[in-house]
Specification:
The protein is α+β, with helices and mostly antiparallel strands and 541 residues long. The chain is built from nine helices and 34 strands. The two termini are 44 Å apart.
Length: 541
């Protein structure tokens, strides 16, 4: 992203080097602005997420930020959110928190039910998970009911909930901290049928009470069938610890609450694809901690990228960072991924797994794209697109060492965030593709930094600090909005380093400015291009 300053009087601020933050006067203004920006198709804009009183615009980090910001301001003053339709949701009020909400609100159980059914609610915005609509307009006693002190690890799909001033329905089974008062059998998100989400900002929602027996069966996640592919190139004999197809992710659906997903380590992913001559968005297998055992059924060329991953063919060691030919009947095994948490397997032609919303990526937050690999899966491949390279030059651009990983960040609140910088944090074992959880090793590292805020859009690399808690750095499967303090954002050049972090690693946050972030991204692009050498098969004199 070029340019380091934005006009202060235009209400547009940098949010890392891959997003722009626009303030709005409230949900209506935010929803209208978000809708207008999407309709304007501004060059360089990838995604648009409306929050409660703001809009976050995801942009191509290589674009000119000043040009984009001026175009966004022009859009902002021209459009307003149009009024939409009314959706009636049948609800059985039998949630596990109904009694407690009755007490906290002072309305009693019957009063809660009457209050929720007596007035229309308006969709403020969508976020958190696909199709999850934040409904405003609760009566005062219900609007004052707080979220649960600790979230449930799993909230059933269809749960009707209140918390933090809003009501909502959980479209999928996910973790959640809202108070559950009932359930509905309505489908609120369908990735196979446009417009995908049932509700949209500006819609009116009315709850209609029914008896529990009048609802259909509880909403269940789709049953995942084994992957089958005609003329498959590979059969999965062992899936590894967590192996998923990943590409560059889902772009253009964040306003529906759909995470971008995609490769957690875009550096290793890009190098693997470049080695086998694939387009930069071809699907690879992302291997976490320990890779799979694959039976080859066709003649193929593959490459594994991960600094010291253990790779073998028919039990004999095979090189990392080099094109490997495979014949039918051979067994490719990837063992421990080494010093970095993840490694990537690319095949010439790319893995041809099903597309969901334009991507083959498997999302671990809500399950878009299916499940991780399982025994018996068959994997097809696409047509070759380019010539094979041969190998990576020594010292590929996988930048720092696990002994002390440095993540460069753009501060959003420099004074408030200063205690986070230059201090050691340890990566917690609860980290995953949704977010890297950090444990502060210095007393006072997060003092005065954490807190809650009105829900705003988020990006990969967003540093969230809950009240009194340790930081979480969001990964590719993150929820699209969040309500915690955001003191800084990891720059896009270091997203690969973020994806390589594994439990136990030490991490340091290093503040930089926008100009440094731009130079770092340019340096990353040069390093990736220079890392791939030769044409397979490389002949030496």
């Amino acid at each position: 992203m070029t340019g380091s300053r934005l006009p202060a009087d235009r209400g547009v601020q940098l949010f890392g080097d891959s997003a722009l933050f626009l303030a709005a006067s409230g949900p209506e203004a935010a929803g209208g602005l978000g809708e207008a920006i999407r309709a304007a198709c501004v060059p360089g804009v990838l995604d648009v997420v409306a929050g409660l009183d703001s809009v976050l615009v995801h942009v191509d980090p290589d674009c000119d930020v000043d040009v984009v910001s001026h175009q966004l301001v022009d859009v902002r003053v021209r459009r307003r959110l149009r009024r939409r339709r009314t959706v009636v949701l049948r609800v059985a009020f039998d949630g596990p928190d109904l009694d407690e909400v009755g007490v906290r609100s002072g309305l009693g159980v019957d009063g809660v039910r009457r209050a929720l059914c007596s007035r229309p609610l308006r969709v403020a915005f969508l976020g958190f998970t696909p199709g999850f609509a934040y409904l405003r307009g609760l009566p005062g006693p219900l609007a004052r009911v707080a979220r649960r002190p600790s979230p449930r690890p799993r909230v059933p799909a269809g749960s009707v909930a209140v918390g933090g001033g809003h009501a909502a329905v959980y479209p999928q089974a996910t973790p959640g901290g809202w108070q559950l008062v009932g359930r509905t059998d309505a489908t609120l998100f369908d990735p196979d049928t446009p417009p995908y989400a049932t509700l949209a900002p500006g819609d009116t929602v009315r709850f209609e009470e029914v008896e529990p027996g009048e609802l259909g069966p509880p909403l269940e996640p789709r049953r995942t069938l084994p992957r089958r592919a005609p003329d498959a190139a590979f059969e999965v004999r062992s899936p590894g610890a967590l192996t998923t197809p990943q590409d560059t992710g889902r772009i253009g659906f964040a306003h529906l609450g759909v995470p971008r997903s995609g490769a957690a380590d875009p550096d290793a992913y890009a190098l693997a694809n470049a080695l086998v001559g694939n387009p930069p968005d071809a699907a690879c297998l992302e291997m976490t901690a320990h890779g799979p055992d694959l039976l080859c059924r066709r003649e193929v060329h593959v490459a594994v990228v991960g600094r010291d991953a253990a790779v073998s063919v028919d039990g004999r060691p095979a090189p990392v960072g080099r094109v490997i030919p495979l014949a039918p009947g051979q067994r490719l095994r990837v063992g421990h991924t080494g010093r970095d948490l993840r490694a990537y397997l690319a095949v010439r032609g790319g893995f041809d797994t099903p597309l969901v919303l334009g991507s083959r990526s498997v999302d671990r937050l809500v399950g878009l794209g299916g499940e991780p690999l399982a025994v018996g899966d068959e994997l097809g491949i696409g047509e070759p697109a380019g010539p094979l390279a041969d190998h990576l030059v020594p010292g590929p651009p996988l930048r720092s060492e696990p002994s002390r990983r440095v993540l460069r960040v753009l501060p959003l609140e420099a004074d408030r965030a200063s205690t986070l910088f230059g201090r050691p944090f340890r990566v917690d074992s609860a980290s995953d593709r949704v977010g890297i959880r950090l444990e502060a090793l210095d007393e006072g590292a997060t003092a005065g930094v954490g807190g809650e805020r009105s829900s705003v859009g988020t990006t990969i690399g967003t540093v969230q600090v809950p009240p009194g808690g340790d930081p979480v750095i969001l990964g590719p499967d993150h929820a699209t909005v969040g309500g915690y303090a955001v003191p800084a954002v990891v720059i896009s050049a270091d997203w690969g380093e973020l994806g390589r972090c594994q439990p136990g690693d030490l991490v340091e946050l290093q503040p930089v400015d926008a100009a440094e972030a731009s130079r770092a991204r340019q340096a990353r692009a040069r390093a990736l291009a220079a890392a791939v050498a030769g044409h397979y098969p490389l002949r030496t004199a």
